[in-house]
């Protein structure tokens, strides 16, 4: 029986790199994003490149609880994923004391609440099955405070805390939980920045780290992976 992976925000950047890495190993794919055209393009690409895998690509805005619930229910009509990657995120720079009204709510709903509700959507089935691996795509902004991080940093500190709690709760049930704390990775969020691409990490490197962590024996788990550009944070 084929293994499957669910990656939120799977059409670009780190999410897409993870999907392509696991699809190359024969995993069926569940993913979502806000742009329906991007999802259709990804689905076509994967099915043409990797014959035999199944791809479910659903339009959803995971900052909205109703969309998270709908996405979970659609995935469940097919099955429970073996790997769950909470990758959806949004970054709006600013400072806590004077950022635009609503930034805090948007980033918490997108970066944290979506992962909370999605994980709860599959946790009981994973517990009953006694297997699964949950990855949270966090950030070094969840380890180190920095100027202009604002509510994004708050959401990533909270994500790390939630992931640590999940690790303790789920380890008796043979479910692995891993935090990926990534530094500046060249994705669409950084387009237009006056820095050479070589200064950033590659999305494929993050994906390779996820793949490596997944492939440990049942006796071991990587709890946290911190990945930074070779020359340090940007």
UniProtKB/TrEMBL annotation:
<dbReference type="InterPro" id="IPR002347">
    <property type="entry name" value="SDR_fam"/>
</dbReference>
<dbReference type="InterPro" id="IPR036291">
    <property type="entry name" value="NAD(P)-bd_dom_sf"/>
</dbReference>
<comment type="similarity">
    <text>Belongs to the short-chain dehydrogenases/reductases (SDR) family.</text>
</comment>
<dbReference type="InterPro" id="IPR020904">
    <property type="entry name" value="Sc_DH/Rdtase_CS"/>
</dbReference>
<dbReference type="GO" id="GO:0016491">
    <property type="term" value="F:oxidoreductase activity"/>
</dbReference>
<protein>
    <submittedName>
        <fullName>Short-chain dehydrogenase</fullName>
    </submittedName>
</protein>
<keyword id="KW-0560">Oxidoreductase</keyword>
<dbReference type="Pfam" id="PF00106">
    <property type="entry name" value="adh_short"/>
</dbReference>
